[in-house]
Amino acid sequence: MNVTEKPAFLSALGMVSALGTGIAQSSETLFGDRPADMRLHEDYLVGESTILGTFTGAVDPLPDHLGHYDTRNNRLLWTAANQISDEISDVIATFGKDRVAVILGTSTSGIEEGTSGYRDRLTTGHWAESFRYEDQEIGSPAEFLRDALDLQNQAYVISTACSSSAKAFGAAQRLIRAGLCDAVLVGGVDSLCRLTVRGFHSLSSVATGICNPLSINRDGINIGEGAALFVMRPDRGKIAVMGVGETSDAHHPNAPHPDGIGAMAAMRAALEQSGLPTDAISYVNLHGTATPLNDSMEARAVHTIFDHPVAVSSTKPMTGHTLGAAGAIEAAILWLSLNQMHDGAPLPRHIWDGVIDPGIPAINLVETVGQRLAPADQSAMMSNSFAFGGSNVSVILGRGFNNSGPSS
């Protein structure tokens, strides 16, 4: 990281997903033996069942005066925000409501509620009283959070499919460094949506069981839902956003470049911004969708970029593919690991059937429950997000480097 640039610390994390509720339960699922909530659903595909990463915990009701924002997407986001309410209050008190921005990634917003509304209209001939067209607007989650907290700075959503909330970190960095705000509530949220599940099914991209990343038997994704929300601030925190690399190779509407050109460029750009050599990266959270094209491309890209056997895994068998929220949830997985690095950072296991695809280069998969890195004073980790249309993002989080500032 250029020493003239302001560091961006992630001082707090709230999250909900198929991993569970909050930091402790999510960590138990990721690094221990708590089963993820990958649930069989009968009502998302016509005449078929499908496994979806499902948040099964309680969601917090929205403030009474904001009932017009009431969608599951916003309830998931609000539940995550309430987990870090003290840190949000502190950052507002420190910098002021006019200096705290909101940048989120999503792809579904309130489209599920919109779909139900249209169905009611077709069935009854009338719109349901609860139907609100604005719920479907992609920007709704950021507008809701801004209004819920009475913030007066920028609030917007990035929607670039699976890279959405990973790109939010780069946007948040730039806002702070440009002096347009002093802190950002940054993250992503997506809720389960019949339109989305059926869309991926129409592309023959939905797995027949639990997704099976990197296996020769892989056959597609499990859609998931969840939210991860961070407080990004320049003045304190244990974990820093050290690098964000963004590229757009525009190879194909729904297939990655087979040689991973855009993916490799994103990883190199993140490394360049961080100022770290490749051997400083101790773990890579793969995009790892368990689709044939993504997995083979990404394995080649990682094998090419890293000159050491960096530990890697895909966590999508434990979260499902949370689409617009995936970048933030998978950055949260790095954050959870880095928070324990002095005891040896725990690594999330790669869940698959172990049947190697001979067409994929050998990479260093984390396959043991409870596997940890050696205790360290410094550690950096990378998360990859590769989306439709060739939108590629790599995010590097680090702890203990000179540019990571004082611990909170």
Q: What is the structure about, briefly put?
A:
By secondary structure, the chain is α/β, with parallel strands linked by helices.
What integer value in Å does the Rg equal?
20 Å
How many DSSP-defined strands? 14
Which percent range describes the beta-strand content? 15-25%
**Approximate helicity band:** 25-40%
The description of the largest β-sheet is: 6 strands, mixed
CATH architecture descriptor: 3-Layer(aba) Sandwich
- Count of helical stretches: 11
Low-confidence regions: 404-408
Arithmetic mean of pLDDT: 93
What is the chain-wise order of helices and strands?
A: EEHEEHHEHHEHEHEEHEHEHHEEE
What is the CATH homology-level superfamily?
Thiolase/Chalcone synthase
CATH fold type: Peroxisomal Thiolase, Chain A, domain 1
Estimate nothing, just give the exact number of structural domains: 1
SS-based class: alpha/beta
Read across the widest sheet, the strand sequence of neighbours is 2-1-8-7-5-6
The level 1 CATH classification is Alpha Beta
Instruction: Kindly report how far apart the N and C termini lie.
Output: 20 Å
What features would you describe in this structure?
The chain is of the alpha/beta class and 408 residues long. It contains eleven helices and 14 strands. The protein has helices spanning 22-31, 72-83, 85-95, 111-124, 140-149, 164-177, 194-202, 261-274, 292-305, 316-319, 326-338; strands spanning 9-17, 20-21, 38-45, 48-53, 100-105, 155-158, 183-190, 226-233, 239-248, 281-285, 311-313, 364-365, 379-387, 391-399. Strands 2-1-8-7-5-6 form a six-stranded mixed sheet, with helices on both faces. The longest helix is centred in the first third of the chain and has 14 residues, at 111-124. This is Ketosynthase family 3 (KS3) domain-containing protein. Pfam families: ketoacyl-synt, Ketoacyl-synt_C. Residues 1-399 form the Ketosynthase family 3 (KS3) domain. InterPro entries: Beta-ketoacyl_synthase, Ketoacyl_synth_C, Ketoacyl_synth_N, PKS_Beta-ketoAc_synthase_dom, Thiolase-like.
